[in-house]
Amino acid sequence: MGVRIGIGFVVVLALMVALSAIGLRYVAEANQRLKDIAQDNNVKTELATVMHSTLRERALAMHALPILADPFEKDEEIQRFNSQGAQYIDARNRLERMSLSPKENEILALIRELTRELTREAQPVVQSVVEMSIFNDNQAEIFERIRSVAMPRQRAIADQVSALLDLQRQQTATAVHNAEISYARVRNLMLGLGSAALLMGMTIAGLVSQRVARQAKQLAAQAMHDPLTGLANRSLLHDRIEHEIELSKRSNTSFGVVLMDLDRFKEVNDTLGHDVGDELLREVGRRLKETVRAEDTVARLGGDEYVVLIHNLDQKGVPSIANKVLAALDKPFHWQNQSIDIGASLGVSMYPSQCADASGLLRCADIAMYVAKRSGKDYAQYAPDQDRTNRGDLSLKSELREAIQSDQLSLHYQPQIDHRSRCVVGLEALLRWNHPQRGFLAPDTFIPLAEEAGLIGPLTHWVLRTALTQLKALHEQGHLLTMAVNLSARNLHDMKLPASVHALLTESGVSPVHLTLEITESAVMANPSDGLAILTELDRMGVTLAIDDFGTGYSSLAYLKRLPVDELKIDKSFVMDMDEDENDAVIVRSTIDLAHNLGLKVTAEGVETQDAWNMLEILGCDCSQGYFMGRPMPVEKLEAWLQQSVWSEVPTGTL
Ligand code: C2E
Ligand code: CA
Ligand code: CA
Fold first, then answer.
1. Does domain 234-382 have CATH number 3.40.50.1390?
2. In the CATH hierarchy, which fold is given to the domain comprising 402-644?
3. Which of 160, 374, 586, 639 is the most buried (most CB within 10 A)?
4. How far does the centroid of ligand 2 lie from the alpha carbon of residue 413, in Å?
5. b/e 83-102 (16+ beta carbons within 10 angstroms → b)
6. What percent of the chain has pLDDT over 90?
7. What is the pLDDT of residue 655?
8. Mutate which of 430, 487, 491, 520 to test ligand 1's pocket (most atoms within 8 Å of Cβ)?
9. Domains of the chain: which residue ranges?
């Protein structure tokens, strides 16, 4: 397009230049021609005029000669007559030498003919006049000869000369007329070419402005749309919501904002790659668009969050629209013969009953969606009382981001006691958040938030680094303990985890054999292939792997056998109720047996009493952890505990 416009400009420019050149040449030529003709005609006219006037003079002389009495005067008159004749001949000769038109030539030939006759006849006439004036002969006869012979000839010549003059006048007029035509032609040509150039220029200007307008429109559209899916982006959504608010105010209707977050998108993205993730996001966009009406707006806010703005929706219509949106995702997505199931959680907010502005509506829908996610429902409608609890969670999320960087986090360490030696052999690092306003927060309250906010990676990194640094210090003080660190399910999506554990071990100078990583069964089951790869890699590095909360989740013994784990941790709920609940006792006993059969070490959690400790010892449990022996404690307390406790380890001497 740009090239074509450029060519257009060049053509217009060339046209203008050619136009000016042609016009100027035409004008110059016409001018020159007119000048030539005028000059030529001037000369010819002058010569003809001279001929004409000499003829008149000679006619006068012819009349005067017979009358003059004085011979000197007569002689003078004869000389004048002759000189007029000479002038006439001279003028005629000059005229003859000029280039003449055929018509002029014709007239001149006639003049020449007549002149010859006149001279032939005039000479004797003059002669006789002279003689008669001398001898004073018959004057009347001379007059008669002059009148009858000389004068008619003279007149005939004069007529021809007049005809010549007329012809010249006529030719001049024709030349002027031709020049005018020529000018008109030039003017028309110039006008034509000028119009062509103008038209071309206007076309180009039109094309350019069209192109600029199109580009401006494209840019505006880009600024308003999500480049990946082509759906409306956040700012266009805001505009649409505001527009919808105006419409609803005028028509006294209500509308809804549906916020949707895909459930397993991150998994797809991590395991199948970004290309598949992108295609999935596009497909979700397409399905949503097909589901809703043309007057509804589908937008993508980024990541796997979509918003559908439902025009003219009332409270009763919410379940049906929510189910319609969910149904759009029911059909599995296909990628290379593999079908991918993607669920979603929806939050719905309504105008005007719940929120009165665009940001409010989006925030309320977000809170509702969050409630849906937490309660395991597919969708939830916003209710003001959700706000109080969830607004807290939402702000916690952003505060957590800051907490990781600004030293609000700390670790408490809980001792793990070996049954055989009755000595502490390890510690479990348990995370605490010393919130500036809310005080100490237990990990159960904020670990799920960290998972949702995508902060698990940095959080685990922080815990590992802090725990390993602390462990190194304890080793240097002579406490050769192991350190157990908890991993979240989300950590098993991070293929870089083994490398970063390795780097942290190297950095702290702790041997891998002193590090245990705890992971729940369900976390492994949520992502078996990546999970297995990561655990295998960690096992190869020499890190101990423990299955946490064993017995609570989905247990697959067959699968357990394939995992490279070294240890099982019996969940505290069974241990705590063991002495009262026969079932729990059976579970604890069979878990210990099972673990030993698989060659695994068993640690019991939640040992709160001496009885529990004794019973576990009888059952052959390897290790125990609980308030009875030691609560999770900050590092200062731990150091004191290690000094004084009955469970404190027998000094091992050298490291
Ligand atoms: P968990 O791994 O099962 O940790 C043991 C929990 O049981 C700890 O709760 C501990 O304080 C508590 N506990 C220990 N002994 C007893 C006892 O005798 N009686 C009772 N009633 N409870 C006992 P805490 O510290 O609140 O941690 C809760 C959960 O938070 C942990 O469960 C773990 O899953 C998670 N968590 C803690 N720190 C981290 C961390 O750094 N990263 C990750 N991903 N999760 C963590
Ligand atoms: Ca644990
Ligand atoms: Ca546990």
1. no
2. TIM Barrel (3.20.20)
3. 160
4. 11
5. ebbebbeebbeebeeeebee
6. 40
7. 41
8. 430
9. 2-204, 234-382, 402-644
